[in-house]
Amino acid sequence: MINGFLQLLIFQAIGELMSKFLVPLIPGPVAGLVLLLIFLKWRGAVPQKIDLVGGAILQHLGLLFIPASVGVVMFLPLLQEHLMAVSMALILSVMSTIWVTAIVLKFFDANRQGDEHAS
């Protein structure tokens, strides 16, 4: 399990380095996840060690939201003051996330169907 966790941390570290030196507009964890996705797509399957660690992390995903929730409560007066701007930012970010997810899903589904027809 430690080996799988180390592999995930390596992808995050590479993503952080890319973010710092190559593409500063993309957060390091996001760049690391994209690299992990490219690696998994290239490999064709999820290695068992990464799958084991990923499952364990996903079981406790709710705990990762606690610090963000505490931060929101601490700045509640400021949030209320800028409620309209925050609401619009949330709505636009959710809509753009759904849109980008649909495009990526369509891309990978088209590639998968192309692979099935080729074999």
Automatic annotation (TrEMBL):
InterPro entries: LrgA/CidA
Places the protein is found: Cell membrane
Membrane topology: Multi-pass membrane protein
GO cellular component terms given for this protein: plasma membrane
Keywords: Cell membrane, Membrane, Transmembrane, Transmembrane helix
Keyword Lyase: no
Stretches that traverse the bilayer: 21-40, 52-76, 82-105
Protein name: LrgA family protein
